[in-house]
Amino acid sequence: xxxxxxxxxxxxxxxxxxxxxxxxxxxxxxxxxxxxxxxxxxxxxxxxxxxxxxxxxxxxxxxxxxxxxxxxxxxxxxxxxxxxxxxxxxxxxxxxxxxxxxxxxxxxxxxxxxxxxxxxxxxxxxxxxxxxxxxxxxxxxxxxxxxxxxxxxxxxxxxxxxxxxxxxxxxxxxxxxxxxxxxxxxxxxxxxxxxxxxxxxxxxxxxxxxxxxxxxxxxxxxxxxxxxxxxxxxxxxxxxxxxxxxxxxxxxxxxxxxxxxxxxxxxxxxxx
Amino acid sequence: xxxxxxxxxxxxxxxxxxxxxxxxxxxxxxxxxxxxxxxxxxxxxxxxxxxxxxxxxxxxxxxxxxxxxxxxxxxxxxxxxxxxxxxxxx
Lengths: 272, 90
Known about the structure:
Structural class of chain A: alpha/beta
Structural class of chain B: alpha+beta
Helix content of chain A: 40-55%
Low-confidence stretches of chain A: none
Largest interface: A-B, 25 and 21 residues
Largest sheet of chain B: 2 strands, antiparallel
Number of helices of chain A: 13
Oligomer: heterodimer
Radius of gyration of chain B: 23 Å
Largest sheet of chain A: 8 strands, mixed
Number of strands of chain A: 8
Mean pLDDT of chain B: 77
Distance between the termini of chain A: 48 Å
């Protein structure tokens, strides 16, 4: 039986797809057979971040409508074994997604995969609700910023009331906070909410802190998930988060600003 | 922080302001979430009944439901106008 994980946030642009791409890659790197599904019907982008946009033939909706088999629609990742991508439809509208259709596909995948990642669209409409409905665990991607934190809290409310687990009165979805685009120097200056501030408000366990990093944009330019870049702080932080997710006890890092040399401290504002 | 920052005007600590605002709005939205959905409809009905006798608006009535271990307390708070004039219906 596969574990179903939803990557969600409520707010758009906080790093759900970036996280989905890196998380799926990280789980496959650890040897788990992983599939990542794009639920953003009409606005798919996971294919771009994973550099398989030119290999999409069939999509999620084709499989739901029995126009293609699951194996025809799944795209095998070129960088690592054990990783498959199920792209969203770019042409259909989101009404083509149905609860029964999604359930059927998840059940079929569940037989052969260890992890099924559901990359949720922004908002709280059908696509987002279906992405989280069948989840066992949820990764709430949040930026240290008021609108993102508020929307994350809203999504937590939905996970706790509108998911399958909630409706059946089963054990609740396990929630994980992933704080992204964190800038420790701005936190130190009192310009940005700190990890502790966000934890105080959302009060869910912290899975990881992904520092603001220029390598995230380079990674999406290349279509190579940032977790492959182990020279970048973001790549290292995603790797840590994966290891923590798999039960290892790893201390959080990238919470404090990097120590700068005397000269950079003097003239840092000019070069940074 | 470079040496030049010392000559710029000091920024206010906006992060703590953000936290304060978030704590208030999140607490407010959570309390709305935990209430049963019939509560707002019930509030409207209660207002309609009172309106038969006193001129009040929806804002003058607050309804909340507190749940303890084995009982629920429905709290009604109705602000009546200063001069209560009974509208004797014919």
